[in-house]
Amino acid sequence: MKKVIVITGASSGIGEATAKRLAKAGNPVVLAARREQRLQAIVADIEAIGGQAAYLVTDVTQREEVQALADLAVEKFGRIDVWMNNAGLMPQSTFDQLKVAEWDRMVDVNIKGVLYGIAAALPVMRKQQSGQFINVSSVAGHVVHAGSGVYAGTKFAVRAISDGLRQEEAAAGSHIRVTVISPGAVATELTETITDAAAKKRIDALYDAVAIAPERIAEAVDYAIAAPEDTSVNEILIRPTKQVG
Ligand SMILES: NC(=O)c1ccc[n+]([C@@H]2O[C@H](COP(=O)([O-])OP(=O)(O)OC[C@H]3O[C@@H](n4cnc5c(N)ncnc54)[C@H](OP(=O)(O)O)[C@@H]3O)[C@@H](O)[C@H]2O)c1
């Protein structure tokens, strides 16, 4: 069955690869991010292969913009079957550098953006008595390293929020599924958000050595969505084979 799928952070990387894979399989997709030209180009690519796609320029830190995204999906395609909270950034640095504006930004996008996505889509899914959240955490949602404290904190939070939601929806019998995807190093634009030169050098070296393509994560999302409705794939931790930590 075709599903209406909303993806935040769809203008590059994992979001873009997932949107293209799922749209190619015939699912209508609704794409959100801030860079409009990127979104337009991805929609054009999808339409060129006969897929259905819409986009809305959305900053996930603005609750009303996230609500407008959900409204667009319902208006255009009639429902929301899958909501993928994927938008995120990873400006890693040590605490002593006091990059407090970056801490704020990570909390706002990586945590509050996910919460606003839940607030926008949950009422629609409750009404439908079906739906699925795909929340993107990270290996950093499972392990912490020096320099990754705040980023890891936001990604641990995504897992906590997701399991709380999962338990509530299971108890309510709403048929709403919750999936957390935790990637390791994936070759995307994510490291461009790192402003600390030493951290960027270290992380770029790791990514150059081991990172896998974002299409690998798209395959995992596809698997979680395709599982039978009575089965909820709750967690997928997916590292490059060569990644140690
Ligand atoms: N790459 C990895 O190694 C890796 C590993 C583990 C987890 N992850 C997670 O995977 C997710 C996707 O990242 P990626 O690796 O694909 O990196 P990416 O290529 O940098 O993609 C990040 C996406 O988030 C969007 N975004 C950032 N701030 C936003 C905001 N305020 N509102 C709306 N969209 C916003 C960006 O679009 P605009 O700039 O156009 O808004 C972009 O589409 C993130 O949550 C990241 O933490 C990535």
TrEMBL record:
Q: Specify the domain of life of the species encoding this protein.
A: Bacteria
* Gene Ontology MF annotations: oxidoreductase activity, acting on the CH-OH group of donors, NAD or NADP as acceptor
Q: What keywords tag this UniProt record?
A: Oxidoreductase
Q: Record keywords: Oxidoreductase included?
A: yes
Residues in domain Ketoreductase? Answer: 3-189
| InterPro entries per UniProt | KR_dom, NAD(P)-bd_dom_sf, Sc_DH/Rdtase_CS, SDR_fam
- By its UniProt entry, which Pfam families does this protein fall under? adh_short
Protein's UniProt keywords contain Cell membrane: no
State the similarity comment. Answer: Belongs to the short-chain dehydrogenases/reductases (SDR) family.
Q: What is this protein called?
A: Putative oxidoreductase
Protein source organism: Schleiferilactobacillus shenzhenensis LY-73
